[in-house]
Amino acid sequence: MFRNYFKIAWRNLKRNKTFSLINILGLALGMACSLVILLWVQDELAMDRFHANDDRIYRVMENQAWAGQDVSSTPATPGILAENLKKDFPEVEKAAMMTWEQNILLTVGTTFGKENGRYASGDFLTIFSFPLKQGDARTALARPDGIVISEKLAHKYFPNQDALGKTIRVDNTDDMMVTGVMGALPENSSLKFDYLVSWERFVKNNKWVKEWGNNGPRTFVLLSKKADPDKLSAKIKDYIKQKTNRQTNNIELFLQKSSEAYLHSNFKSGKLDGGRIEYVRMFIIVAVFILLIACINFMNLATARSVKRAKEVGVRKVVGAERSSLMGQFVGESLLISFLALFVALLVVVLLLPIFNELTEKKLTFRFADPVFWLVLLGLTLVTGVVSGSYPALFLSSLKPVVVLKGVLKFKPSATLFRKGLVMFQFSLSIILIVGMIIIYRQIRYIQTKNLGFDKENLVYMPLEGDLQKNYPTFRSELLTQPGIKAVSTSWSDPLEVGSSTIGVTWPGKDTTQRILFNQTAVHYDYLKTMDIRLKEGRAFSPDYSTDTTNYLINEAAARKIGFKDPVGKEMTFWGRKGIIVGVVKDYHINSLHVAIEPLILHMQRNEFSGVVLVRAEAGRTREALASLEKTFRKFNPKYPFEYKFTDQEFGNNYKSENIISKLANYFAFLAIFISCLGLFGLAAFTAEQRTKEIGIRKVLGASISNIVLMLSKDFLLLVLLSSLVALPVSWWAMDNWLKKFENRIDIEWWMFAAAVLASLIIALMTISFQSIKAALMNPVKSLKTE
Fold first, then answer.
1. pLDDT at residue 769 tops 80
2. Which PROSITE patterns does this one have (predicted)?
């Protein structure tokens, strides 16, 4: 029986090559898209889950409440938190501190380079399961002069040698011993580093780490097996208040599972509010949408062509076939098409996966050796086959032999309405994707072109380190004489992120019970000129005023927060140092565009210079300016490699995820429309075939080609218009929620919806027109001829 079913199915595929090709191609594209998204989602969900004790690893977070501001959540914590938590709470089995990413100079003999890594305390390598090929995870970071390096760095600095026990010079100041060598970090690790330096060195160079009032490093804890994370989170809530003996302290601690931090990183009012998980959910929905569109194509075409198989069903019922066996045959045919589509889909994915990996900066692969992978593939194919074949099977198996054997099959109004409803549904999904594509593109474009309040073009910055720190004034003076250089200054922070904040600001009349948070950074002369920041009132720092070393510049947001009507000339105390506000700068973006511009205080770097050197190149002379910068740098800092960053490029890198999402949205929207149009093409061809004699008669009676094309097209175009009535409210709701994640965002305008509907109509018309014109041009003599 099954052999006969297979033969019949195969013959039907061969007999109707065009419709078979449309069905297989449509399902294959839908399945290929779903497979790619499934691989991407699987990779995202697996991020940071490879650690042996994943279920017990948590990071400590802070909720900070400041006057006039929403509660903010941050992973930055006091540098002495880990050791105290381990000491005071038996639920904490291990605890470790880790810094943000550091870029420091490593030197061995004549080989040197700037490498990316972190400082970490002793328990770090025993909490996490990073692959340590040499050394002991329990003691590798215990030595004050210990450093753990990657195999890559071991090959670079100790070629053809055993690196363990060897010495590396760090920042030309300290000799560190290699106490461990790590293998390559797993691709699904969100923490990236090529070395880990002993925490003791960081503490030695940063005394502020030992104070409860200073935040920065990250704290990770490994809970005991019997510990309840929720109860512990409640117990540590007021821990910093207790340690500082200040009940007015507005900082509360809580725990977040470490492996969930990658996908769940956004907080609002101290509560979890999404993150990258939203993109995961979005693409799961997109995958379902596209697969549904492909299935609907199959259902529509199979149902529309049922007239061709009506007599077959009638004859088989007359000779005793039961409805269940007929349903089995038609579902079996759809499963055959699904498996053929799966083969094509796998081929498409194999060909396109390298391009997708390049686009998303992933390293996705087919896990052919994983039985779960094959089970998922089998499940996807079965679901696709059963869903796409279910309605045709039910419809065809329900036909009555007496009716179908009399002559031409007539569809009931309900069947026609159902088919039209399916067309509307798939075009509704397509229009939703097109609207999403337009709005996401516009939002990303808005971010890329938004005026940040300073000019990010022709602005270069580089670390202020090594001999540059002590020779900066001379370095700056010589650099300003070089061709292509317009202005030079320094800042503690890079141009796109002011990462330091303080509540240590007072002024006459301030309410002492209010704890107001200000961002702050130290700068040098010509900072405003180099950044091209506009003054609202007052003046910039100038060497003509010796008191400027204790004076301040503030932005408009800070002026509003302080409450002075005319801030210039008013007294302000910052970190216990009294000074005068000499100028107010126009608000400019000091952090991500996802957040509002916050209060900022600029103060002067005095004798010790650190942070970054900012260099403004003259327009059109960037290459010349870089050559001048390199020549001067090598003269003053020969022991360090010459490295620099363009502000505009770094700005683009900060929104890389949004750029990737925008591109993927474009591709998926195009794919959804293409699959929908495949089905529309098939339906138009079938309709034209069914109405061949009608078209012939109309032509004989004088109907023009345009009349016939309009007659065949209008019903389909009406369905697309009706689809928009469903799609537009849904797409507005979805994209409005997405845009709420941006503090700086575009407005959703009517033309975006109009453009999506118009694009759908034009694409649908182009698809239908081919078959309509072909039918209209047919010779009526041939179309009216009786067999």
1. no
2. PROKAR_LIPOPROTEIN
